[in-house]
Design goal:
about 55% strand; 8-stranded parallel beta sheet; about 130 residues
Length: about 130
């Protein structure tokens, strides 16, 4: 998927979400006018994001928010503001990802306010 005017792929309130071997790119490179999120599951359960590539998001290449039971592995996420962002989520494993050229590589937040609060078992490992 290339050069979307907004978020590339958003999935909301779903169970059993899989992104596998997906490429999202804004081909002009980093730009504040690019879509905010590349791969964007929110309010989901049982999320798998693997073997995918995201470049040029104006916010996060991979964003998982207010979700639980998450695996993010073996992705190449580069030239975004945030490479991978896990926000207000539970039970996330983030490993074997290559996050390069982002302002921040892997960010984990538990912010006050959203209906789902994280704070449980988020593990990450980079290569």
């Amino acid at each position: 998927m290339e050069n979307t005017s907004g978020d590339a792929i958003k999935v909301k309130d779903a169970n059993g979400v899989t992104f596998r071997r997906v490429r999202v790119e804004w081909t002009n490179g980093p730009d504040e006018n690019n879509g905010a999120y590349g791969l964007y599951p929110v309010g989901c359960r049982n999320v798998l994001i693997e073997d995918s590539e995201v470049r040029g998001a104006s916010d996060a290449g991979v964003y998982v928010g207010q979700s639980e039971n998450i695996i993010v592995r073996r992705n190449y996420v580069y030239e975004n503001v945030a490479g991978i962002e896990i926000e207000n989520s539970k039970f996330a494993d983030v490993y074997e990802n290559n996050t390069t050229g982002n302002t921040g590589g892997i960010l984990v937040f538990d912010l006050p306010g959203p209906p789902v609060q994280g704070g449980e078992a988020v593990r990450y490992l980079t290569i």
